[in-house]
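Forwarding the complex inputs:
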Amino acid sequence: KQEVTQIPAALSVPEGENLVLNCSFTDSAIYNLQWFRQDPGKGLTSLLLIQSSQREQTSGRLNASLDKSSGRSTLYIAASQPGDSATYLCAVKNQAGTALIFGKGTTLSVSS
Amino acid sequence: GAVVSQHPSRVICKSGTSVKIECRSLDFQATTMFWYRQFPKQSLMLMATSNEGSKATYEQGVEKDKFLINHASLTLSTLTVTSAHPEDSSFYICSAREIKSGTQETQYFGPGTRLLVL
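Prediction (whole assembly, two chains):
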């Protein structure tokens, strides 16, 4: 059974710092991996989607990498801002047609 | 990206009543929709997979008679929480699967429904 783990559970950094969020999954045979952002009491905002054949995806200050063989993904946030404060969720899809399986998330707090 | 809506966004009900939550894919057809539940400070847990025109598949530990799912059309799935109790209070999020170019699929999420059972 696929399990997704995110480390750290919480992270506090000063504004401007570059940071890395980690995600690991137990079954490396995935279809794709997705990173989401969730603000308190709100729904999910999709940040980056990496297909199994891809190594990384970039959007603005965000860069996500995927190493399927080791069962790992990282989300890199450059020059963090207070507006980046949120919970970041990593999710994997095992096969086409199946549901995304979520990690417990990393709660990020960026202070000004 | 594609849009998924949920209604209502928030509902408060008395214990013992039933609550229906609607999930709609607004600009694409979704043969498959997924229902998740999220308790405070927890991650999203998959409850069931809803397939258009057939019975839903429930995850282990989810009572199918309590959480009724109907996926009667390619754009609408409903989740009915029957005889709701305070422990059913949670954030319910639906997701719809879009398939492009025959093979590439993406899962889009609704904004969620917050249920409070008194």
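Chain B has a mean pLDDT of 93.
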